[in-house]
Structure prediction request, 232 residues.
Amino acid sequence: AQTVTQSQPEMSVQEAETVTLSCTYDTSENNYYLFWYKQPPSRQMILVIRQEAYKQQNATENRFSVNFQKAAKSFSLKISDSQLGDTAMYFCAFMKPYAGNMLTFGGGTRLMVKP
Amino acid sequence: GAVVSQHPSRVICKSGTSVKIECRSLDFQATTMFWYRQFPKQSLMLMATSNEGSKATYEQGVEKDKFLINHASLTLSTLTVTSAHPEDSSFYICSARDHRGYTGELFFGEGSRLTVL
Prediction:
């Protein structure tokens, strides 16, 4: 079974600065997907970024980028130029392909962006 | 992007009654939907996988007779909490997979907050 670990329960960052959220996972699979989801106070889950394990290039989406280290089973999220609207819970998630799209979530990191 | 809608967003019920929560895919067909439960300040816990036209697959520890799941069409799955008790109070979230192609992405509903008095 896969496990996803987020070692930082809470983090804070000043507006406009950069913050990195950590995520490690454990799997015996070689091919898989990794995701970062954002859950703001509204509780709506929002996909932030996705990484396919077979791709060596790190995924980026505007201010969001990942550092994917497959050998180390690490998948950190970097948020640049943090904005107040980035305040939310962030969940790292693992998906094994062709297994029904079931997601395994980490415990979450609560990020507070301070003005 | 694909939209998943949950209804109701909030429901308050008396202990012993049953509550139905709907999860609809609005602009795509979903052969598979997932139901999660989320306690305050915690992560999402998968309760069951709902497959259109067949029985749901429940995770270990989730009572199938307590949490009835029906996926009667490609756009609708329902979760019924039967004989609800205060300990069933929680935030319930559904997600759905677009059957047209494999994108590795699930689309989430807005969630439903259940309060059992």
About this structure: DSSP finds no helices and twelve strands in chain A. The mean pLDDT of chain A is 94. Chain A touches chain B at residues 33, 35, 37, 42-47, 50, 52, 91, 95, 97, 100-103, 105-108, 110 (CB under 8 Å). The longest strand of chain A covers residues 88-95.
